[in-house]
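Data card: per-record layout.
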Amino acid sequence: MPAVSSNYSSLNSGSNDNYFLRDNITAAQMLLTSTNNTDTQPKRFIVALPAGNSGALTYFLPLNTSASLAVNLVNETFKSAREEFNNTGVQADLSFNNNATLGVTIIGSVRAMRDYIEGNGTMHQIFNYTLAAYNKTSVHLHRRWINAATTDPTKYRGADLYLFVPPDSNAQFNITPGNNGTFMTPTIDILLPSGSTNGTISVKVVTNETSLVGLNSHSLFLPETQDEGSGLPTALQKLSDGKVTSANQVSFLTYTDRFLAGGWRFLTYFGRDTLIALRLLMPVLTSDAIEAVLGAVIERTNSTGALCHEETIGDYASFINLQNNRSDLGNEPFYDYKMIDTDLLLLPALSHYLLDLPQGKDRAVSFLSQNATLQNGTYAEILNRTITYNLGRALPFFQNSTISNLIGLRPGQSVGNWRDSTAGLGYGFYPFDVNTALVPASLRATQVLLNADIISDIGMDASEVGQIADAWEQRALALFEIKVDLNTSQSRLEDFVQAANLSTELLSQSANVSTMGSDFSYYALSLMQDGAHVEVLNSDIGFNLMYGSNISQTLLQHVINALQPYPRGLLTNIGMVVANPAYDSNRTMIQVLNRAAYHGTVIWSFQQGLMAGGLARQLGFCSIDTTTAVDVNPPPSAIPSWCSNSTFVQSLRDAETRLWTSINGAREQIYAEVWSYSFDNTTSSFKVADLAELSPDGTESDAIQLWSYGFLALLDPTRSGPMSNQGDGECSDKSYT
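The structure for this 737-residue chain is written out next.
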């Protein structure tokens, strides 16, 4: 792979300033509480490194509790750093306007940092650091890795946080060690000269974890093309030249042997995230990048054929192994297989790559014949395990299409799909997306790969697999359908706007959509084990649009119904909410899935991209006009019957326009993970709100999230130009050596 060139970018997200650096020494994200926040609250400083998913977290507090404190990055000082014993990381100079003291400090695992922030201050004592050395101008805090079996400083050294005074600063430290040994928290004060309002210290975070080999934008994105009659050339404009902020941010998350989910909180491998991101981004990616994702997923398959949800590496892997009474494993990665959706996303991505996209042409044999490096076997042999596993899960519903034969959460687990919180699934057991979209999509992908002779020896032929897919497509959706009569729906809407502190004016913002009768129809978020509906209007129908075959007019009408203004539907002026409990007869869901809930009435950007890309895919089956199509989606053998209904097609296009208008209301947010809203009663409109400021448990949004960059492979039919030129928000790029 080409060497990674030095690049640096920054962006503001919520109340945080984020800085990203990757060069041939290291990769790191640094986060500071925003410079416009100068009150007396602690100022948070984070460094997160993909190497070992490690880093450091500390809080700077005003030494005088009544004084304000501002902590700023000094321009041009965020850079890579080296220390002895092959330790690498980053350093930066920070300016202070007042005396400060260090608060809670965690060194080592990003996962431990996240546990503390989102776990009400939970931290195991095993993650304590030691005060290694100090004086008036420098402080060294050290974390020895859990599995450090030797005192030899050249081995298993761990991670380090250094604070020191640069030559041009008159600041100094006042250190009081803990009174019961080096593991007791010391008091570390940062003192400015008397009467000064400006002092500078340098902060360095390093680790001896091995840095990952990155993909730069040139090796990640296809070069620009002159392919006429397609939207691909527009989408590809400048993505591969290393000068586009959004492309460089994707690059920061992509490596030769895995892609990472997002920064700072999920700076490690997540199977579901990378597969969904791949499906959205695939049209603009090189074959090397696509195969890096597919290979990473296949490599981490377990013995049953299930796919890895999350890979835990570094010091936190040692912690989990220790908790599982397997200290003998040291820091060997721990693989989590609790999710039920990840297993179903691989085959649709693989078949799309090998059979539809030009990048995958003639790549099947060479790719699938590779020998895995994390386990024994070729990719083809490992893939067959997953295929057999998925077929085994799909057969019972084919044989007897009852609710109990749908695919539910794994035993002992309360989560299983992308809404990976118990409340996010409405406490349900059978997720809508898994059973109505992903199971049939995986089966159809298996069928076409068999027909193409790319896979074989799975114990079934293509027609048999097709029959199983037919059963799922024809019978699963009906089990999730909900109908609410007109009077009941109106009454619940009126109750909801009061309970959610909204305005009844919103109820007049109707798209005048026909709902195919007086009932309002939509699909349940999930089913309880007894088959009861979780009656939450939701965005997961986007999975059906992006992954589904043989999509009916009835399902598309449900899409039209959902893409109405909120709270009748999902669309606000700042994006599409992923859950709307307005129609739910269980009124407790209004608070369970409110605007402060991680999977509540909030906007997840990738869900918008999935819905938009899925709509474009389905509408593309009706039209020979491909000038706005970036993806390659061969039309079905029979054009859908609904395509001949021009009135219906127009209503679907109107819904698409409403969706994009909603997206464009917060376009500067589109590469972030999730955001919430505040409501202005005077204008009956919504404004972007930082989830972290609302969440009762401190859950926040990543500033960059891999699957949110799926927008780079979409064209907005309401605007001209590539998304890469229109969604960078407050980002800036800078190159240096």
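Known properties of this structure: Residues 423 and 592 are 7 Å apart (CA to CA). The chain has 19 helices and 34 strands.

See the next section for split statistics.
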